[in-house]
Design brief:
about 85% helix, mainly alpha, elongated
Length: about 80
């Protein structure tokens, strides 16, 4: 089986770029500015925005766990390959 390590490297760079954009605070600062405006929202709209925020947070926690598992598994694989 052919291993396209260049492609895998590009995938990691794409992942890093996306994670960097998600980590940037500008959008969250803008959201905080918007929601502090008096009369910004109705109770239903508040619930919608709050639910989406909670969902994003939960998904990011899952992504963090996946990244940790990816690293751990890769380290184990690397050790096994060196022992051969």
């Amino acid at each position: 089986m052919h291993h396209d390590l260049d492609k895998l490297g590009r995938q990691f760079k794409d992942l890093d770029s996306l994670l960097s954009r998600l980590a940037a605070a500008e959008r969250r600062k803008e959201l905080i500015r918007i929601i502090k405006v008096p009369g910004w929202t109705t109770p239903a709209e508040f619930l919608l925005v709050s639910s989406i925020t909670q969902s994003i947070t939960a998904q990011l926690k899952v992504l963090e766990k996946l990244e940790v598992h990816l690293l751990e598994a890769s380290q184990i694989i690397g050790k096994q390959e060196r022992q051969k």
